[in-house]
Amino acid sequence: MTGTTITLHTAAAEALVAQLPTPVPLRAVPVDAVTAQARRSTASSAVVTSFVGSLSADTALLLADMDQVAAAAGTDSPLVSVVDVLRPALEAATSVLGAGVLGDSRLESADALFADHSTVVFDLTAAGETVGWFAVRLREDGTVGLVSSSAPASSASSAAPLGAGNLGRINNVEMALTVEIGRTRMSVRDVLGLEPGAVVELDRSAGAPADVLLNGRLIAHGEVVVVDQDYAIRITRILDVADGVA
After folding, report:
1. Each residue of 143-161: pLDDT tens digit?
2. Is domain 175-245 in CATH 1.10.3720.10, yes or no?
3. For residue 4, how far is the Cα from the chain centroid?
């Protein structure tokens, strides 16, 4: 069997809808240029962000019923916003572009992005009804080859380094380095119910190494130490690049 080649735009849209917190699963349907221009009137307030990496992109996400997302987010609290709720879906969409940095998400007009002829616009549909829109503009024209599971392992490994040589262009981009001693998953209701004195149990035993994350990607393990009254991390293990990306 031969590998299936799909555009990065479509791969991004499919990854996005898989992570959207909607009551029913959505489908991402690409629209033609004329229809895309007609969608500009809906783009007055969208969640937009930019991705910088071996491939860079600008994205915008808008759901017709933002109030429903806002209600689920509990926007009366400063802890969680609509942007926070939708960011994981945008992270999933841009993850198909490879290594890079996803900038801050913000709620603003995406009219200019929708107006650009190089932008690909998708209708997000449920039961044949359009309930949202996703726009993505790549800074480079790219496609990705997806090798089927029955393809020889050598084919997959030869495709993996695609674009890696371009990383030199972002050597000076600052990235967030985070040390994580553990994590847990909580419902929005439980998060909003936190108060001083509450104890949150993490998925990490006492004494276990801390994770070192570069822009959210695991790159190393280490132990927390104190240096001149400040916390620091002593690196104990550097992970393989492939492990960190996975």
Report:
1. 444 433 333 433 333 333 3
2. no
3. 23
